[in-house]
């Protein structure tokens, strides 16, 4: 049975003033299934094409932290200890950092893990 889900695209924004970005990940949240997942990938060539001094190491650390928080990794800090709803809202909140979440989109899916994989392949790869 299809359940409602929400997702946000994660974007690398190396220079806030220029406003250019590339997609580097996806968050998928399905409250009825208590599912929160994040998949990320940093294409260094595409990131470099945005110009400026992109701190790739900082971006990698930020993306790794997002995945750990989404999983609820106990060593990822207090945000990771929140329930799936709290973690999703925290991760999808507007931010002025090198990695930003898009607006939240919604849909229906039977398998949120498969939906995460599909969105990642379509929007990031």
Note down, in words, how this protein is organized.
It is a single chain. The protein is an alpha+beta fold and 125 residues long. It has one domain. The protein contains four helices and five strands; from the N terminus they run βββαααββα. The protein has helices spanning 44-49, 56-71, 84-92, 112-123, and strands spanning 3-12, 22-30, 35-40, 99-101, 105-109. Strands 1, 2, 3, 4 and 5 form a five-stranded antiparallel sheet that branches. The two termini are 28 Å apart. The model has no long low-confidence stretch (mean pLDDT 95).
What is the tally of helical segments? 4
What is the share of helical residues?
Answer: 25-40%
Rg over alpha carbons: 14 Å
Distance between the termini: 28 Å
| Number of structural units classed as domains | 1
**Global outline:** globular
The secondary-structure element order is EEEHHHEEH
Mean pLDDT: 95
What topology does this entry show?
Layout: E1 3-12, E2 22-30, E3 35-40, H1 44-49, H2 56-71, H3 84-92, E4 99-101, E5 105-109, H4 112-123
Antiparallel strand pairs: 1-2, 1-4, 1-5, 2-3
Which key features would you list for this structure?
five-stranded antiparallel sheet; 125 residues; globular; 5 strands; alpha+beta; 4 helices
Briefly summarize what is shown:
With 125 residues, the chain is of the alpha+beta class.
């Amino acid at each position: 049975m299809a359940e409602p889900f929400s997702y946000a695209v994660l974007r690398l924004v190396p220079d806030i003033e220029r406003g250019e970005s590339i997609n580097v990940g996806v968050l998928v949240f399905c409250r009825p299934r208590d599912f929160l997942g994040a998949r990320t990938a940093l294409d260094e060539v595409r990131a470099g094409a945005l110009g400026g001094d992109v701190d790739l190491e900082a971006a990698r650390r930020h993306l790794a932290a997002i995945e750990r928080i989404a999983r609820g990794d106990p060593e990822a800090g207090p945000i990771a200890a929140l329930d799936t709803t709290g973690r999703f809202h925290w991760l999808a909140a507007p931010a002025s950092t090198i990695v930003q979440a898009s607006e939240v989109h919604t849909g229906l899916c039977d398998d949120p893990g498969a939906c995460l994989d599909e969105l990642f392949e379509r929007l990031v790869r």
